[in-house]
Design goal:
The chain is mainly β. The chain has strands spanning about 5-15, 15-20, 25-35, 40-50, 55-65, 65-70, 75-80, 90-95, 100-110, 115-120, 125-130. It contains no helices and eleven strands. The mean pLDDT is about 85.
């Protein structure tokens, strides 16, 4: 990475790590080969990077094939993961908070062809969103 970015949130699932940065980008890394026992850990490979928000990405959550990111720009982006983990495609933007979105949690239960997403903001509100799931 050629720029200086402070990572404000990250999540890991199925050998992938997603992170939201202070520059509004969301990036993803895939676990590569395991490093030797002396070095420990894994070699991580950058598989995608996208400009997600106008301001810092402050929180993230995963539910099924979807990743959600909340931002200081008061928005929540909903992303669908590629099946091979090579990227994210934005499928929606949720707006309604009057302050930065600081926490997100999605319900693992499907409700009427979608999922429930809970968001908390510095505007002192908690919102519940119904997010429809794309078929196919």
């Amino acid at each position: 990475m050629s720029r200086s970015t402070r990572w404000s949130s990250w999540i890991q699932e199925h050998g992938l790590v997603y992170a939201g940065g202070s520059d509004g980008h969301v990036m993803g890394w895939a676990a590569g080969k395991q490093l030797d026992s002396a070095a420990g850990g894994w070699n991580w490979e950058l598989v995608f990077e996208t400009r997600a928000h106008e301001m810092a990405a402050l929180c993230m959550c995963i539910v099924g094939e979807y990743v959600c990111s909340g931002s200081a720009d008061k928005s929540i982006c909903v992303w669908k993961r590629d099946r091979d983990g090579s990227g994210l495609h934005r499928v929606g933007i949720l707006r309604g908070h009057r302050g930065p979105v600081k926490c997100l949690q999605a319900s693992s239960s499907c409700v009427g062809g979608g999922f429930l997403l809970y968001s908390g903001s510095l505007d002192k509100s908690l919102r519940v969103w119904w997010v429809p799931i794309e078929e196919g």
